[in-house]
Design goal:
Elements lengths: L7 H30 L3 H4 L1 E2 H5 L5 H4 L7 H17 L6 H22 L5 E2 L3 H17 L3 H20 L5 H6 L5 H23 L4
Antiparallel strand pairs: 1-2
Helix pairs in contact: 1-5, 5-7, 6-7, 6-10, 7-8, 7-10, 8-10
């Protein structure tokens, strides 16, 4: 039997398919983790007085638990929407690194700049940062429509939550005010991750 001819186009298609399959695997694993961690919510919630007492992990793990199942479901829906539309799909290792960095930006941002905040829960700060990063990358690839929908969507929602004082419709679903500042810190984290690549693209080749 004659072997199949492999061309650069075939290799590129296979690589993209492999990256997308691994992205689905990562999103599935993260979904399972977020569902599981909900059972340990009291031990992971961002609670300022407990962080002061030395439970520093709550700065980060507050991103991984939610106020109720509606809150969890909304963030999981956002995670899978990002997984489906993001191009190019990052490898799980890169995606994990992005998540860790943005989560750190959210936790430390809330700690230093929202000192009136007593407690916080939710993956949305990280999610907004990942959407920001994906939107900028699509702009660089001239995927104008998708990029503008992503960036306009997250920026518009953040402005809306600010205008409503955190009491938008979603606040009723999650049984808590929307902490829109966490979205801002996440978006700034996503922007910080995008800056090196933006600089490299603008840098003239030698």
């Amino acid at each position: 039997m004659q072997g199949m001819l492999h061309t650069p186009e075939h290799d590129k298609t296979d690589m993209l398919h492999d990256h997308r399959s691994r992205a689905y695997l990562f999103a599935t694993a993260l979904t399972a983790i977020l569902i599981l961690l909900q059972f340990f919510q009291p031990d992971l919630l961002f609670q300022r007085h407990l962080i002061i007492e030395g439970e520093f992990w709550r700065l980060w793990t507050g991103n991984l638990v939610h106020t109720n199942l509606w809150h969890l479901g909304l963030n999981l829906a956002g995670l899978w929407l990002l997984t489906l539309i993001q191009q190019p799909t990052p490898t799980p290792r890169i995606w994990l690194g992005q998540t860790l960095f943005i989560g750190t930006c959210v936790g430390t941002g809330l700690w230093f700049f929202n000192q009136e905040l007593v407690w916080y829960a939710g993956f949305s700060g990280i999610l907004y940062g990942l959407f920001m990063l994906a939107g900028i990358q699509m702009l660089q690839q001239k995927e104008w429509t998708t990029a503008l929908l992503i960036l306009g969507g997250i920026c518009g929602k953040t402005v809306w939550d600010w205008a409503q004082g955190g009491t938008a419709l979603s606040a009723n679903l999650i049984d808590a005010p929307v902490i829109y500042s966490s979205h801002i810190y996440g978006m700034l984290g996503g922007l910080a991750l995008a800056l090196p690549r933006m600089y490299q693209q603008k840098r003239p080749s030698s």
